[in-house]
Design a protein that fits this description.
This is OsmC family protein. One of its GO terms (biological process) is response to oxidative stress. There is one protein chain. With 136 residues, this protein is α+β, with helices and mostly antiparallel strands. It folds into two domains: 5-38, no CATH class; 46-135, 2-Layer Sandwich (GMP Synthetase, Chain A, domain 3), CATH 3.30.300. Helices cover 35% and strands 35% of the residues. The protein has helices at 34-38, 46-68, 105-118, 120-124, and strands at residues 5-10, 17-22, 30-33, 75-85, 88-99, 128-135. The strands form two sheets. It has a three-stranded antiparallel sheet. Strands 4-5-6 form a three-stranded mixed sheet, covered by helices on one side. A hairpin with a 7-residue loop joins strand 2 and strand 3. The longest helix is centred in the middle third of the chain and has 23 residues, at 46-68. The radius of gyration is 17 Å and the shape is elongated.
Length: 136
């Protein structure tokens, strides 16, 4: 399987702007710029998109890991925070809260660690990956 996205940029890094488009059409000429990346401009930025990708990938992988261990989650909520420092993404922090009938905290933590290490986006990132989990 292959998925695509495209970016078009016009102008300088600080004064220019760009548009993003995804194969699915979810992003269709979606605006991004220096202001959306480093200030409070309206639009998206690469780090926000990576955070969404990591949260989504991790949540789905956690569901697969839980299922393989004999559990079916009622709900998994994951917030991902991407840190950009010195021109590099240095960390991706996952904060997960889940409702999973019949699981204990130790087994849940084991499943979170497995999903964190093995989701495809975690494997792609060359950054420190941390996670906090809360079982409700």
């Amino acid at each position: 399987m292959k998925r695509t996205a495209t970016a078009n940029w016009k102008g300088t890094g600080k004064e220019g702007n760009g548009k993003l488009q995804t194969q699915s059409g979810v992003l269709n000429d979606h605006q991004y710029s220096y202001k959306t990346r480093f200030e409070d401009g309206i639009g998206t930025n690469p780090e926000e998109l990576i955070a969404a990708a990591h949260a989504g990938c991790f949540s789905m992988k956690l569901s697969f890991v839980l299922n393989a261990a004999g559990f079916t989650p009622d709900n998994i909520d994951t917030k991902c925070t991407i840190t950009l420092e010195g021109g590099a993404i240095t960390e991706s922090h996952l904060d997960v809260t889940a409702t999973i009938p019949g699981i204990d905290a130790e087994k849940f933590a084991e499943c979170v660690a497995d999903a964190k290490a093995n989701c495809p986006v975690s494997k792609l990132l060359n950054a420190k990956i941390t996670a906090e989990s809360n079982l409700v």
